[in-house]
Amino acid sequence: MKMTPAALALAVAVAPGRPFAQQTPLASRIVATDSSAYRPLVAVHAGAGNMAFAGLLSRGAIGPHFNFLHRGEIPAGSSIGHHFHNTVEEMFVILNGEAQFTINGRTSRIQGPAAVVCRMGESHAILNSGTETLQWMNFQAASVAGVSDNFDLGDDRVGAALDAIPTFMSVQLDRALIRPAGARGRRGAPPPTPASTGTMSRRLFAPTVFRSAWAYVDHVLVAPGATSPEVAHESVGEAYYVLAGSGTVKVGAETAPVARWNAIPVSLGETSSFTNTGTEPLELLVVAVARDMETKTAVMRGAVRP
Q1: Which of 4, 147, 153, 271 has the highest CB neighbour count under 10 A?
Q2: 179-195: b or e for each residue (b if 16 or more CB lie within 10 Å)?
Q3: What global pTM score does this model have?
Q4: Residue 22: what pLDDT?
């Protein structure tokens, strides 16, 4: 099937952009969400209506198998149509409202905030079935570094039959499910100290969920006045998105401020920690991608602890 102009625009958005080099000042690597910079598109992957988005992090931002983080809005009644990716996988995130997600032709209604994994080789779509504009994100990682693809099915999913219980993997971004420090079990995270006991985390998706070099997805809370344990990114790079709150991030010897709806890339070979300087919890969504498929396999087998 011929690629639609909107699908082509999404595919092109994977390619441009110089990776965030470690030599770039930390403050310049942090990207704020700016809706005025969103690019409007119609019939994305042969979907209904329109949407708008911008690329926050581009290919290579945290490692060779990371393709992008897109951030945008999907108006009520609009959709990203039913399509496949055979070399990459994605995670759609909605921060509000509700949406009908389709995976492999089965559709269910999901309330936001939530995340749905679109694994490599599985067809997927999203329709804004609510009354408010969806705040939407899409992360993409590749099985082969530097490669992306798509195949549209010409199906906007409007009027699709709904399953009461989803037949696909989804999670709610629910703070009440986040556990005390140590839940992430990552290498380089020392026992809690007085400055780091205010960090809690939840593993949303484990390494075994993904078929690509995607390593895991975490949901983290840092309490006001607390600092998260320093993490050494020896085997995985991480992309952080600030869901709420404010504070600072330290990467190596540099420190920079972060705020709600900022994206922060941390590359292989770096160290990172967050400090909450605000009065409300600093809430982070963390996407980790392994150095390569060999490293990802070692992570799954427990030979390498991220």
Answers
A1: 4
A2: eebebbebeebeeeeee
A3: 0.89
A4: 58
